[in-house]
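Instructor's aside before we start: the two examples that follow are unrelated to each other. I chose them only because their records fit on one page, so don't look for a connection. First example below.
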Amino acid sequence: MEVYILFVVGFVLLIKGADWLVAGSASIAKKFNVSDLVIGLTIVSMGTSMPELIVNVLASSNDVSEIAIGNVIGSNIANILLILGVAAFIFPLKIKESTIFSEIPYSIIALLLVAFAANAPIFNPDYQLFISRWDGLIFLFFFGLFMVYIIKLARGGRADLLEDAPDEILPMGKSIIFVILGMVGLFFGGVWVVDGAVAIAKEFGLSENMIGLTIVAIGTSLPELVTSAMAAYKKNTDIAIANVIGSNIFNLLWVLGLSAIIRPMEYDPAINVDMVVLLVASCLILFSIMKGKSKLQLGKPTGILFLVCYVAYVAFVVYRG
């Protein structure tokens, strides 16, 4: 029973830890006159992917790579079908042209890169599918290219691609306490989530893939879900899709890249089906835009479609698992 309680508490610590770390770090940066742009590009942007990163690093270190890979793919599917579905259901989501022609295609390229790297060993006679350290380095290289792209967009007046940096400047002592609490919360939250996920998988005879693709993935996506739902409720949704797609790219290239460098990750070919689901979900955004009555936005019907698709996907994963 204790491990399940810690599993739930771990999710709370992951979410609050990321929030505290971002708030404290951003406040310290502002104290030293660091621009909102730089804060957004570094602290805030990476902070939203911190729960996935911590869970993956710990899962990779503990040699439970199925949870690590499942967490990233499952989180990305949840980002599109669940988070965008909820946000679009609440209020229509406006879409930037650069998101359609640059960011979504780049997220698809990142997914295909990961899929190719994971399945490339299949061409060897005695193959074992895995994501190697070299693959991780390649992912980080493409992540660097994406960061260069974001910087160019921001310098060209597209700083709205980033999440807003916090306006409040906390006292230095409080900022330092927030940073320390954030790091401690992220570490212990990640440990308890990974340990709990492994325990649940073993006790109920479920695969680590299934736990990573569903429970862990949804849990680590909760910050984005709450943020997007609140933004839609306040009718401030013009950057919701760009942020979701950006988070997906962070997860595929940054999170998986670091995880693979720490320890090469064994890859279950069953996840190829989930890769296809993520690819279809990414393309579904573009299809919905082209078929929609209103240009450059996702409306309530699309939101309902996304949510139905996500429920069907989770049901499929549970049935398979």
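Example two begins here.
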Amino acid sequence: MFYLTESYHYEEIIKKSRFISIVFPITSEQDVLKHIRELQIEHPHAHHIVFAYRIKTPAGMVYRFFDAGEPTGTAGKPIFQHLEGKHIINAVVVVVRYFGGVKLGAGGLTRAYGQMARQVLDSAELHSYIEMAEVHFTLDYEKFQAFEYALKKLNGHIVEQIFAGQISVTVNLPKENKLTLEGQFN
């Protein structure tokens, strides 16, 4: 999976219609609504503001797509297919369309919206998503230095530590390294 850290913009005229596509990093559905509201204010005369998004949550993947008055399945779904096909999470792609007087037909709309999504996503700098896990350990003092060394090698970091009779440690590390660390210190 991949994510982005900044927004990207792409614009093109297709058969006299002006298409503007923007991809935004998001963390919640409230972020999506905020970006849509901003674009509605920025483009009050646009005929359609279409979008699709994918958000990874602890409960699973949340996704939606919206055709904004275009024929069903010709706008939001092609955008979503590019997000899903490129395994991009925590992003919304919005395409603003100013109608230019030439009807594109269902196939033309599907191609146009898909192309706009592909172009803006191809221009975006994507980062690999690493799923993290939070793990708790109780350690003796003499094992703590070795634990810190092993944790650093596994790209983890300490979130909380409590020193008492033993050391209680909460760490955050890549999920794929969780079993390795637990095998060494449990």
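The first helix runs from residue 29 to 42.
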